[in-house]
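Hi F.,

I've been meaning to write this up properly since the lab meeting, where we talked about keeping a consistent format for the predictions we share between groups. The idea is simple: the sequence comes first, exactly as it goes in, then the structure tokens exactly as they come out, then a line or two of notes. No screenshots and no reformatting. I'm using this chain as the first example so we have something concrete to point to.
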Amino acid sequence: MYRFLLTPRWWGINLFVVLAIPFCVFMGTWQLGRFEDRVQSHEQAEKQPDPSTRAAKPLDELLPVDKVTSGRPAMATGTYGDQFLVPGRELDDRQGFYVLNLLRTEGGKALPVVRGWLPGTASGARVPAAPQGVVTVTGDLQASENIHSDGVDARGGLPEGQLGMISAAALVNLVDYDVYDAWVTLPEAEAGGTGGAMKPVPAAAPAGSGLDLKAFQNLGYTGEWFVFAGFVLFMWFRLVRREAEAVRDVALGLVPEAGPAGGPAGGEAGPEDSRPEAGPEGAGASEGEAAAQDLAGKTPETAQGS
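Output, unedited:
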């Protein structure tokens, strides 16, 4: 009954099922592993002390920024240079902008320093001036932003002096010196009252270290892939059952087997079978046709004579 499984059509169906189910299981397992990694990272982050409470270290000792060094206090010495305003940043449920200055260090590289946050729009805003001369700043270390970071404006076209994304890639086209692939945010207002009107910007948790929406998306994708695997197996069993029932019905004679021309297997209808039966109405129609043919064969004169 199941010999149809060896036909070329079913070979293709079986091959698809054999490849699709392991692929779905693999993808579901991979997504589950991603979710477990995020859970583990979250648990490890909770066990670690608050990065901002740890002792400050020189900037170069904490680079590159990773999940361990993100948020750690970093120290750098230099002079403030170019200033940029970063619009569209929210703090305490209010819209405002960051005030960012580039600290030119002794090594020649510049460190982006977020000195604080101000409410309102960045266009035409007046901000406190940066300290003059050589200064040593201690700020919470942060990784460069990307297009997926909160508040980032990657559309471009901002007015001069404004910056949509805090990253070395965005600053390399705005300044003619090297920039660190990191930035710091000052945890307190600047001494001397220069930045007293600005609010400190709290450091953000490193990406992938918490149970955020992406973590639960991985868990949702896990379920979807396993559902796909079950659906493929269910459809295969359903198709096999339908095919087996059709073969059984033909074997029991419940369904006539299709012949070469799509008709019954007993034979084809001949020309005589296709003619209508000769009944009373059929006879009358035949006599009328004969009279019409006889009348058509006569000339007009003959027809008048008749």
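Notes:
The longest strand covers residues 73-91.
The CA atoms of residues 48 and 65 lie 17 Å apart.

If this format works for you, I'll send the rest the same way.

G.
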